[in-house]
Amino acid sequence: MAKILVIDDELLIRTMLSEVIGSLGHEVVVKENLTEGLATAKETCFDVIYLDVLLPDGNGLESINDIRLASSCPELIIMTGHATPDDAEIAVRHGVWEYLRKPFTVEHIVRSLTRVLAFREQKRQQLKSSLKRDEIIGSSPSLMQALDLVAQAAATSVNTLVQGKTGTGKELFSRAIHDNSSRSSKPFVALDCASFTETLLESHLFGHKKGAFTGATADREGVLQAADGGTLFLDEIGELPMQQQSAFLRVLETKRFRPVGATKEITSDFRLVVATNKDLREMVRLGLFREDLLYRLRGLSITLPPLRERKEDLSELVTWWLDKRAESHGQQVKVVSDDFMETIM
Question: Does pTM top 0.85 for this prediction?
Answer without folding.
Answer: no
